[in-house]
Design a protein that fits this description.
alpha+beta; 147 residues; single chain; two-stranded antiparallel sheet
Amino acid sequence: MKLIDKQYMETPFFGVPRMTEYLRDLGHKVNPKRIRRLYRLMDLHALGPWPNTSKPHKGEGHTIYPYLLRDLSIIRPNQVWGMDSIMMQSVNGGGHHGGGIFINTLDQARFGLLFLNKGKWKEKQLISEKWISLATSPSKANKKYHY
């Protein structure tokens, strides 16, 4: 379980098949059934898009929300962040509060391209180059964190 927890923290997109393959490569004799049981026990789920999440009429309470950032020009810091703080707990009982941008992998890749292209998307400047430069510059070390 410790190996699964450690690898999951590095690659949260590993589902049961990939985690099984990873552990077999390390020499462990495991099968997908066991890894699936441990994933359930540890309450782990591979991060990534689930099938048919954008199809309408999936039952009571299923709502499809419009993509709100499509025509938005991002012109100031913290304009589009969807932040949340959640308690993350590891198998050994330790834990911490964490937060982040909760978006799917395709949107993460889009943000990556946006940053690589210095704020341009399809020949249109969505984020100023100055803001991209500031956002990607290293900050001063915080002595409270001891690094």
